[in-house]
Amino acid sequence: MNNVCANWDEKCSGCGICESACPTGAISIHLKNGFFRPKVDETCVECGKCLRICPGNLNNDVISYQSFKYRIYGHSNSTVVRKEAASGAITTELLKYMLDNDVVDYVITAGIYQNDKDLGYSLIDKKNSSLLYNHSGSNYCPANIGRSIKEIKQNEGRYVIVCLPCLSRGISKLLKEDQVLNSRIKYVITLMCNHVPSYEATDYLLEKYKIKNPKMIKYRGNGWFGNFRAYDDIENGTEIFSVPFSEYFSTKYSEYFWQKACVNCIDHFGINSDACMGDADFVKYHSDSENDGETMVFSNNQEIITMIEAMESKGLISVFRDIEASDLEWIYGPLAKENRACELNTRSGARKILHEEMIERRIRQFKTFLCLPKRLLMRMIRSR
Length: 384
Ligand SMILES: Cc1cc2nc3c(=O)[nH]c(=O)nc-3n(C[C@H](O)[C@H](O)[C@H](O)COP(=O)(O)OP(=O)(O)OC[C@H]3O[C@@H](n4cnc5c(N)ncnc54)[C@H](O)[C@@H]3O)c2cc1C
Hints:
The chain is globular. It is of the alpha+beta class and about 375 residues long. It contains 16 helices and 13 strands. Strands 5-4-6-7-11-12-3-13 form an eight-stranded mixed beta sheet, sandwiched between helices. A three-stranded antiparallel beta sheet has the order 8-9-10. The protein has helices at about 15-20, 50-55, 80-85, 90-100, 130-135, 145-155, 165-175, 180-185, 200-210, 245-250, 250-255, 260-265, 280-285, 300-315, 325-335, 350-384; strands at about 25-30, 35-40, 70-75, 105-110, 120-125, 160-165, 185-190, 215-220, 225-230, 240-245, 275-280, 295-300, 315-320. Helix 9 (about 200-210) runs parallel beside helix 16. It folds into two domains: about 60-345, no CATH class; about 350-384. Flavin-adenine dinucleotide (FAD) binds near residues 89, 92 and 191. Flavin-adenine dinucleotide binds near residues 138 and 192.
């Protein structure tokens, strides 16, 4: 078949770009094992456009942070905004700056996880630009951009899109084929990415921590690296659960629930993006005191660099340029060449993992039980 079905298992990241590009509307996106996957119906004419724009079709060049010449880190000067962001809130501040200064008319950024397992993208304009603050933070679950690309095709305006590197590669291929989109999408900002966990990973956390029917979830924010938080409502909801990033991310949550496209991925930065944002982890590990978060910014686009400098001179953000090459290599080097040894763990279901954990727990309890008489005996001997 000359369509994305050929890429289905090995290369598909579920970004949804094929759905938006299909000239006959033959492609629809569905959830399968916690990831989005395309379905192709009988109206497909096998023109091959979806395969041409699929970001899964990569050549084998190693893509490194070194491809970006401008490398700084920094944070928002608003303590409130900085605290709720994933890292230092430079992404949110840059998007806000673009809207407030008429650089773009619309921001397209991931929605907020509301327990409906269909994280689409939100459209934010100048009138409601403060919504960007609600959206800050990283979503560790799949997001499908198909609907939003269709909206851009229908509505004139200048757009900036925030997305993961895989999607940004798809967008840049799409822009070469579609002049209307090319004239409207002005900037693509990527979030540096190790992998995106499936929705089953979120189910795993909900079951592990016994969180019942949350209405909204935040994976980061509330300090650095922040917390996984569940709320009982979307707007002004009460926080019903919170666990630190360092605790939940080191569980099976990040070890399992991978898709093969992430295991095989060699572009963690979004090589064609206008800017790539990541956690400046080295700052955290070098500081003695608690730090509210720093965003690492990589770019080759002079317009983005000029905007960042303007934001700095207006006092909106603080920027640091004193970065050691060894720090960059330590944090971002392995991302480009790491051995994805967890391949065997891909797409193991949440239920299976929870079941295994339960059995392990029972075995531990049983062993403790068996040791009990021995311990009692020892205690009796000691007490004599
Ligand atoms: C799945 C994933 C994996 C990541 N892996 C790494 C990593 O390994 N190393 C690293 O240094 N950084 C990683 N990051 C990036 C990091 O978590 C921060 O997003 C980045 O540092 C920007 O921080 P910030 O405070 O400037 O962003 P904020 O000011 O908090 O703004 C973040 C913006 O990104 C949007 N957004 C959040 N999640 C998504 C998503 N899934 N798709 C599209 N848009 C989204 C939000 O809506 C918001 O507009 C990852 C992010 C994600 C989503």
